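User: I'm curious whether this sequence folds into something compact or stays loose and floppy. Could you predict its structure so I can see for myself?
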Amino acid sequence: MEFKKNHELAPLTTFGLPAKARLFAEYSSADELLKISRTPEFTENEVLHIGGGSNLLFVKDFDGLVLHSRILGITDYRKDDDTVFVIAGAGVKWTDLVDHCVGKGYAGLENMAGIPGEAGASAVQNVGAYGAEARDVIHHVECFDCRWRKTVVFTNEECRFGYRDSIFKHEGKGRYIVLRVSYRLRVGTEARNLGYRPLQELAGRLGRTPTIAEVRDEVLRVRNEKLPDPAELGSAGSFFKNPVVHRHYYEEMIRPEFGDIPYHEVDGHHIKLAAGWLIEHAGLKGAAVGGARVYDRQCLVIVNTGSATASDVVELAARVEKTVSDRYGVTLRPEVNFIDSTLRVTALGSGTSKGVPEIGCRCRVCRSTDPADKRLRASVLVKTHGLSLLIDASPDFRQQALTHDLRYVDAVLLTHSHYDHVGGIDDLRPFAAHGAVDIYLRKDVDSDLRKRLDYCFRDHLYPGVPKLNLRVIDNHPFYIDGVKITPVEVLHGKLPIYGYRIGGFAYITDAKTISDDELDKLRGLDTLIINALQIEKHFAHLSLDEALDVIRELKPRRAFLTHFNHHIGLNSELLEKLPPDVRPLTDGMTIEVE
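Assistant: Here's the prediction. I'll summarize afterward.
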């Protein structure tokens, strides 16, 4: 077992963009992985597990440990005349596995021929192509549980597969490492999955049902015509997911203005649009930023022409998303995983429950014309690793979202159920139009919301209500698409509520007291945002002096104060009272956290 330092990652990714891992290690068995998991290199660093690197974009060097599986081997177990189980090590190349199964006459993987990457990623990503997905054939997934340091097995149902999605991309990411994948395949050489047009055309040309080998070869031919060879042009394959929209939106809004756009049926109410078509017809074919370019032959792909940097790719991807959204009203989301620990925090609001100015108040703060003295109800948006995480949905959320041109929210973290922190949940409707929004919350908040928003949780929902997936959490770290979130329990008066730590950033609001154990979770911060309601003491909130005492105790590199009422005074006067490393948060402020 060897830990390599400052290891170059470009050869391990299909994008081929320059990036280094501070630490890197490979393992060839579960026992070796167990030994690695007990080392300081593993326990004291952020850990990222990679496969074939076909869906990764390292935005910058990775300041942690990168692991890669070298667990190989393919084993076949014949169940009966019609069924065979094929078990592959996570490090087996996917293309080798497909060829193995086709050569043995095992049907089920042939439509997914040519997908870059390794077998382990098939379970993580739920890879798919030409009408087939890995979830159609995965029987079970053997994993290493990093929390309990033991091997566990997930059934197909327990993997919670979705479109390019699984449990291993959410709460399982960072905890479970795929060791082996078992596939349940059909014995036989006749192809049966011929729903996609190129395969129907193949059957027409042959005048008969093609074999699985012929399907594999046709898929490879079509892919080679559309997709670049990573050895010649670096890419991550399909950069964007095909967006799913409501059929009504397509028929009433898109088709009347733009005509028929290629789509695929999802269910009776939703269709999947062709992202490549949208990008091309938005005029983006061949669009370039630096050495990154939208691929001429398949606009779903962004390629590295040889000199691209990660920032080139990020800028081009953002341009594609905005252009398609502006033209079609459709939001594209990346299929590629952004590996970037930088956090960008935007203050959507910095006021308390009444906001500032307060209705009907004529005090000098409420009459101030300084924009810094205008405070919507408190909330922040955190962007990291390609995710947009909303902390609290205040009653002002609709106004905040419009002001900041917010086009998607990946998840919501709720601190507690008081109305000034949850009153905007109904305004999540646009973000829930094509799938439920995940909301992470305490058990008591879950109970309160189900009563307050009962119309969102009935058996027969009224059309248009926000679809919400309430995920109850406790006071332990959890993961959202690999991003570690640490709840911090504080007391709001006598009410236990949560703040959250994400990397070197923490957000605490409505706190009055914080126990020593919870304070320990907040040590070593780069940036702390914490509430400071007013100058005078309050029974349920930290006052200005009390907030400054907490900051002096924790010693973050810098701190920002939030959740003010008008008694805090003018922002300009508050600035003069604060030490140089502490600032009042103001609406619209953006903070970069390394």
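Summary: The chain has a mean pLDDT of 93. Residues 4-69 form a domain with the Uridine Diphospho-n-acetylenolpyruvylglucosamine Reductase; domain 2 fold (CATH 3.30.43.10).
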